[in-house]
């Protein structure tokens, strides 16, 4: 009896049709008390229903080779992006089946209604694709897949359990990274909103002497080479290479604020990963520093092939803290790590002018030795409040305060510019494009 329970009863479920049949059977027995002419019809109906249930049971359990199912999960998921997962299912029954699939996805997604339905003919294979968008880095555990199979009668369902628990890491947005990498290699960054920057002059790094082609600048003609060769030759210049670029990420409580599911820290991590990759494609040296109430991780600038992997491994583990940013520790780390003039892209956030003024002395010292670009965030929720129609006095008060905070953000940009510090005030969703734009502009203008 225990063996029967384990093998059959535990994975056997009643379908909607059997409940409808039982309801109809009960109704017939009830009406037979008042309508004697029904006779033995309720008993006949009950017998037919029981027989059909037995036939359905035999159909589902008659064969050893029934169905096959597999979940295809990537080795890692990309944070903040839509990741595609697939469920492959194959029918080995001699008849068509109706299937229902429950995938036990990680609890971080907070989805309890991931239910797929499909019909499969005998011998048919199907692949069901769906998207998951994680919003936190870390380890995600996928459970089993529950497959419910019904025969054409659809009176009972047999459950199959496939797979074991699988742990998949969620890394910073490498899907976005690949997208921008391909654009950088093919010089098509403008397809994603990256602007082409007009060059102020020529780079000082000489590349080669080449034949003149239509469109080359006449000012670059090499007259000595032209005289020797007997045809027009021009000097070719290239971007200066091996310049140092560091992304500094603030992990303090100012970066915990969420926008569209992602915290500001995650936006900064995704953008810094893309920026580091673009810098490496441009043959610059890229590095990383993280900071909170104390110095965090440091990856010295380099342009070796493994550099991006090192940066990604560090960013995967980073978490926001609950304490204030320690600018003194950051300044000490910069002075101890950066041995030459570098471009510093500092991802942080200021919600008020007083917050900026507390950090300004350290920012001025950093800008004295390096080219400093401060990246902070526009509060898009405040923007919504300022544009919303006001209906009462309380609404006027709230809108006035929101307008004041939004205006203070613009004042911060002017205050930083007054001290020779570059800055970007950006909505979180446009962070990556705006940062890459500014990096390319700085390269074109030869500011480093």
From TrEMBL:
<keyword id="KW-0472">Membrane</keyword>
<dbReference type="InterPro" id="IPR002881">
    <property type="entry name" value="DUF58"/>
</dbReference>
<keyword id="KW-0812">Transmembrane</keyword>
<feature type="transmembrane region" description="Helical">
    <location>
        <begin position="12"/>
        <end position="35"/>
    </location>
</feature>
<dbReference type="Pfam" id="PF01882">
    <property type="entry name" value="DUF58"/>
</dbReference>
<feature type="transmembrane region" description="Helical">
    <location>
        <begin position="41"/>
        <end position="61"/>
    </location>
</feature>
<keyword id="KW-1133">Transmembrane helix</keyword>
<feature type="domain" description="DUF58">
    <location>
        <begin position="208"/>
        <end position="373"/>
    </location>
</feature>
<protein>
    <submittedName>
        <fullName>DUF58 domain-containing protein</fullName>
    </submittedName>
</protein>
């Amino acid at each position: 009896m225990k063996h029967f329970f384990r093998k059959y009863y535990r994975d056997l479920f009643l379908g909607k049709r059997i409940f409808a049949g039982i309801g109809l059977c009960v109704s017939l027995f009830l009406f037979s008390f008042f309508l004697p002419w029904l006779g033995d019809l309720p008993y006949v109906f009950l017998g037919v229903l029981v027989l059909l249930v037995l036939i359905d049971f035999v159909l589902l359990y008659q064969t050893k080779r029934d169905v096959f199912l597999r979940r295809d999960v990537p080795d890692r998921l990309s944070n903040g992006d839509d990741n595609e997962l697939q469920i492959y299912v194959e029918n080995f029954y001699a008849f068509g089946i109706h299937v229902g699939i429950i995938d036990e996805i990680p609890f971080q997604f907070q989805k309890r209604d991931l239910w797929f339905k499909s019909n499969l003919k005998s011998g048919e294979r199907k692949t069901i694709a769906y998207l998951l968008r994680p919003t936190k880095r870390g380890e995600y555990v996928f459970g089993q897949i529950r497959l419910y199979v019904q025969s054409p009668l659809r009176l009972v369902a047999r459950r199959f359990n496939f797979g074991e628990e699988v742990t998949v890491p969620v890394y910073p947005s490498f899907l976005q990274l690949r997208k921008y990498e391909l654009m950088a290699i093919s010089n098509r960054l403008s397809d994603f909103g990256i602007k082409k920057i007009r060059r102020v002059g020529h780079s000082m790094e000489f590349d080669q002497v080449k034949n003149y082609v239509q469109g080359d600048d006449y000012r670059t003609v090499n007259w000595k080479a032209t005289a020797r060769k007997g045809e027009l030759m021009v000097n070719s210049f290239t971007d200066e290479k091996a310049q140092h670029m560091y992304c500094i990420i603030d992990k303090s409580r100012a970066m915990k604020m969420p926008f569209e599911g992602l915290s500001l820290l995650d936006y900064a991590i995704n953008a810094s990963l893309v920026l580091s990759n673009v810098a490496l494609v441009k043959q610059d040296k890229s590095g990383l520093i993280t900071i909170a109430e104390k110095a965090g991780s440091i990856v010295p600038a380099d342009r070796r092939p493994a550099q991006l992997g090192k940066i990604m491994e560090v960013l995967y583990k980073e978490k926001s803290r609950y304490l204030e940013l320690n600018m003194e520790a950051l300044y000490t780390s910069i002075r101890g790590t950066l041995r030459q003039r570098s471009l510093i892209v500092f991802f942080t956030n200021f919600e008020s002018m007083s917050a900026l003024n507390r950090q300004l002395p350290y920012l001025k010292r950093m800008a004295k030795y390096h080219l400093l670009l401060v990246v902070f965030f526009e509060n898009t929720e405040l923007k919504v409040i300022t544009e919303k129609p006001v209906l009462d006095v309380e609404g006027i008060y709230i809108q006035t305060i929101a307008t004041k905070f939004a205006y203070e953000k613009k004042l911060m940009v002017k205050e930083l510019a007054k001290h020779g510090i570059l800055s970007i005030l950006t909505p979180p969703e446009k962070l990556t494009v705006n940062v890459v734009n500014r990096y390319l502009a700085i390269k074109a203008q030869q500011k480093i």
